[in-house]
Write a structure and sequence with these properties.
alpha/beta, Carbamate kinase, CBS-domain, eight-stranded mixed β-sheet, 10 helices, 19 strands, globular
């Protein structure tokens, strides 16, 4: 029996006609897939409008009340889509985060998922219904409504896919997939057929906005294949999978747009791998003229401007000025591995300083890098509760 979770973002359900289009697409999917669960974001700019509305009432609204307010946006989307599906003759039911038992911690406005019950979802699927779930929201064990932070509907979809043991999770968006560069910046950018979880995590941390970083982390932890594709037309998108499932992959995959480093080697362009210069070019044009298969490492710069690329294909590079370097974030030694990874992803950094004190305001004990942190997470059974070990870092 096939089971797929599909997620549609705000641009995909931005108005009534788009909602009807999504309904037609979901109904068509149900004809070839045994069980379909759909996760939806709020319509268009609804969340921004609700935030603005709250700001007109209070300059510092309580976070609990913000969660109560913002969670309504997805409830509008889920109900309208369920109506549209029923209008097409496809039996459907909408459900909130509370109804699907999306249990979270108590972190209002940026809660983390602790458990997904999904028993009622399974019951409804057995009746032949499409289950439409409100993304972005959850509930604490005390019954308090929470939200998962910006892009949280991606995490809702992946968490449901993991709990339901879905075949895969489809993320429908306004682009055709994951590209070697932002096609709006680099017109010659090419769509990638497959990307590994670590590559996608790095791209999310360095500026790519296709997937929320926490959703990719969740997919990696539970080995949920992701399929990123367009809401507006058919066609294969980009699969995000484990490295073991990708038989042949390039050293470098894509360029993102977060700049936080600087390097100067005269007037030449330096290309680096693992902090070592492996090649130099005289002009950016020389780089852009490189063969398609000419792959390089993670850093590239010209005239004193270095771009932190994360993962990139050299031919699609677009050199831009780098802003001032940001301070390295500090985290308390009492933090969990999960908290450390969240802080890295939120700040777009691959290194944290670890310090004493509840807020990390005490003596700096050492540091930890992304690679070491990911290795530590993979070695423990419960990374949610596992504490940092400064000896794991450098």
């Amino acid at each position: 029996m096939s089971l797929v979770v599909q997620k549609f973002g705000g641009t995909s359900v931005g108005d009534v006609e788009k909602i009807k289009n999504v309904a037609r697409r979901v109904a068509a999917s149900k004809k070839r897939i045994d069980h379909v669960v759909v996760v939806v974001s709020a319509l268009g700019k609804t969340t921004d409008e609700l935030v603005e509305l709250a700001g007109q009432i209070s300059s510092s609204p309580p976070e609990r009340e913000m969660d109560m307010l913002l969670s309504t946006g997805e409830q509008v989307s889920m109900a309208l889509l369920a109506m549209a599906l029923n209008e097409l003759g496809q039996d459907a039911i909408s459900m909130t985060g509370q109804q699907v038992e999306m249990l979270t911690d108590t972190g209002h406005t940026n809660a983390k998922i602790r458990h997904v019950g999904a028993d009622r979802v399974i019951q409804e699927l057995r009746k032949g219904r499409v289950v439409v779930v409100a993304g972005f929201q959850g509930v604490t064990s005390e019954g308090e409504i929470t939200t998962l932070g910006r892009g949280g509907s991606d995490t809702t979809a992946v968490a449901l896919a993991a709990a339901l043991h879905a075949d895969y999770c489809e993320i429908f968006t306004d682009v055709d997939g994951v590209f070697t560069a932002d096609p709006r910046v680099v017109p010659a950018a090419q769509k990638l057929d497959t990307v590994s979880y670590p590559e996608m995590l790095e791209m999310a941390a360095t500026g790519a906005r296709i997937l929320q970083s926490r959703s990719v982390e969740y997919a990696r932890n539970y080995n949920v294949p992701l399929h990123v594709r367009s809401s507006f037309h058919e066609g294969e998108g980009t699969w995000v999978k484990s490295e073991d499932e990708i038989m042949e992959k390039a050293i470098i995959s894509a360029v993102t747009h977060d700049f936080d480093e600087a390097l100067k080697m005269g007037d030449r362009i330096a290309v680096m791998r693992s902090q070592s210069v492996i090649a130099q070019y005289d002009t950016p044009e020389a780089i852009l003229a490189a063969p398609v298969d000419d792959y390089v490492g993670s850093f590239i710069g010209a005239g004193g401007q270095l771009k932190r690329l994360g993962l990139m294909r050299l031919r699609d590079a677009a050199l831009r000025p780098a802003p001032a370097r940001r301070d390295i974030p500090v985290i308390t030694v009492e933090a969990t591995l999960h908290d450390a990874l969240d802080l890295m992803l939120e700040n777009g950094r691959d290194k944290l300083l670890v310090a004493e004190g509840e807020s990390g305001a005490g003596e700096v004990l050492g540091s930890i890098r992304m690679d070491d942190l990911m290795a530590a997470i993979s070695d423990v059974d419960d990374e949610q509760g596992a504490k940092l070990d400064v000896s794991e870092g450098s």
